Amino acid sequence: MIKTKHKIVVLVLAGLWLSAIFSIQGCAPKVRPSESLLDTPEHHVQSGMKLLKLGKYDDAMREFDLAKGLDPKFSAAYAGSGLVLGHKGDFKHGIEEMDKAVDLAKAKEEKVNANVGLIRLYLLGKESAHKSWLSKARRAYSAAIRLSPESSAAHYYMGECYKEALEFDEAAVLFTKVLDINDGYVVEANDAWKLIQKIQTGAQDR
Q: What is the pTM of this model?
């Protein structure tokens, strides 16, 4: 009788263990097989970023979703979808996606890009993204330049944040850094710097 009860307990425990294993497997994201040479996470993210720049947000999101289907842990895909959501005004979910990008990032470049993505989201939404949007952007900026002090993207987008917050001296410093680095965002930083000079000169003339 005792042996029979022992067998029943063992069988029940084994069943529970197998159920837990299958449950965990069922929750794991399904990875789809690549269908062509261009069907890679990297290619889909590159295409998605081009479409994002053109304002084709639904098409861009499709590309980022395809990248996630191939690699559910591909940081850049979440950074891209976070930006799409931000451009659509859904900052809550956009920041959630960008936080995933930060968490999944392994290489230094991935970590920098994810933190720059956060700066861009706070710049897009400002108070709509977070009541302390500038502080949040500063935190992401600090994380980015700690890893890559010469990141033109980090300096440029943080400069734009300062410009939007009317902190022109801080913005001018960062735009000047972009011009000194001379490796991306040069035209944009130069235009922004000239605008600040006009604003500050006009204020002095009053």
A: 0.82
